[in-house]
Amino acid sequence: MSNVLFDRIALIGIGLIGSSIARDIKKHGLAGEVVISSRSADTLKRAQELELGDRYVSSAADAVKGADLVVVSVPVGASAAVAAEIAGSLKQGAIVTDVGSTKASVIAQMQPHMPDYVHFIPGHPIAGTERSGPDAGFSGLFSGRWCILTPLEGTDPAALQALKDFWMALGSKIDEMDPLHHDKVLAIVSHLPQIIAYNIVGTADDLETVTESEVIKYSASGFRDFTRLAASDPTMWRDVCLHNKDAILEMLARFSEDLAYLQRAIRWGEGDKLFELFTRTRAIRRLIIEAGQDVDTPDFGRHLRDEKK
Ligand code: NAP
After folding, report:
1. Tens digit of pLDDT for each residue in 267-276?
2. pLDDT in tens, 40-50
3. Which of 186, 110, 119 is nearest to 148 (CA)?
């Protein structure tokens, strides 16, 4: 039995996320044809060497011609330019989606360019690693992970279902959310931890009393996991910060208040307050494990990446 969900899929952007999608499309036979486009000739060439698709096209506009599904996987700050480029070439009835980590901004950037004869349905797979580029992707990245879709008012139910079926074929679990709510939730679970990681690693780097070799030598403790986050793609995270500004600033304000509370408790030796907080946070960790949102090794899924090599 054929697994084909779309006759032609166009992938615009073929980095970590785009190439992981490509690998899963191929593995599960979800498309009649996969057409790939990337901004640079080097990345496109690499995608071809890795045999991620069937055709490789330098122009995004040419790539989307005749495509039934278009997946845009570029840094969120590039969404408007990509939407403007592909708009005039989209097929009647095509589904256009994205994978961007912020949703309100991507919608504001892309929607004005979308012709009314296509179905624009924004999305965000909650899966990734700190690596980027076509070599970083791997089949199975989305397996068991949530994919949040933020359909706009009046979205065609059949198109929405077709996109859900696609993500489910990649092994994802689907949630629907209002875009602004998505941005708030992601600000606390993803964007703030990332900013804290950048900050803590930056602070360690600036410390004059601790040498760089000590930072590396003793990094088997908590610091190491922050360096993993802080090694993430600077372009992607610059764009996330600039394009989810309001929600991130709101969460940072809350975070600063809570940090001041902790600071005071430590200064005044209020061990009961510390103990109460640390007990509460331990319970959250247990809930995450019970919800299956943790992998059983401390490598954050890196073994999956290595297995594909
Ligand atoms: P990536 O590995 O760095 O790949 C980025 C892709 O976008 C490449 O094909 C790159 O093309 C292209 N690109 C970069 N700048 C561009 C521009 N200004 N205009 C047009 N194309 C451009 O990035 P990624 O990790 O796959 O992230 C892609 C999207 O997924 C981002 O919106 C990100 O927020 C979202 N996301 C990421 C993660 C994660 O963990 N990384 C998780 C969920 C969602 P060239 O290489 O040819 O320049």
Report:
1. 999 999 999 9
2. 999 999 999 99
3. 186
Q: Where are the alpha helices (DSSP H) in 12-156?
A: 16-28, 41-49, 60-64, 79-86, 104-110
Give every strand in the sheet of 6-12, ordered side by side.
55-56, 31-37, 6-12, 69-72, 95-98, 119-120
**Which residues of the chain, if any, have pLDDT below 70?**
295-309
DSSP-derived pairing of the beta strands 95-98 and 69-72: parallel
User: Within this chain, do residues 171 and 190 fall inside the same structural domain, yes or no?
Assistant: no
What separation in Å is there between the alpha carbon of 15 and the centre of ligand 1?
5
C-alpha R_g of the chain: 21
The CATH number given to whatever domain includes residue 280 is 1.10.3660.10
1 in any annotated domain? no
Distances (CA, A) of 208 to 119, 197, 214, 227, 230: 55, 19, 12, 19, 20
Number of residues in the chain: 309
Beta bridge partners of 6: 31
Name 184's Cβ contacts closer than 8 Å, sequence gap at least 6: 247, 250, 251
24 and 101 housed in the same domain: yes
- Looking at the structure, do residues 45 and 132 belong to the same domain, yes or no? yes
pLDDT at 131: 94
Q: Where are the alpha helices (DSSP H) in 14-170?
A: 16-28, 41-49, 60-64, 79-86, 104-110, 157-169
pTM: 0.92
Q: What's the token pair of residue 69?
A: 């599904």
Residue pair 99/74 in contact (Cβ under 8 Å)? The answer is no
Using a 6 Å CB cutoff, which residues line ligand 1? Answer: 13-18, 38-40, 43, 73-76, 78, 81-82, 99-101, 124-125, 128-129, 132-133, 233, 236, 240
CA within 13 Å, CB half, 151? 17
What is the Å distance from ligand 1's center to 99 Cα?
9
Give the structural domain span for 13.
Answer: 6-177
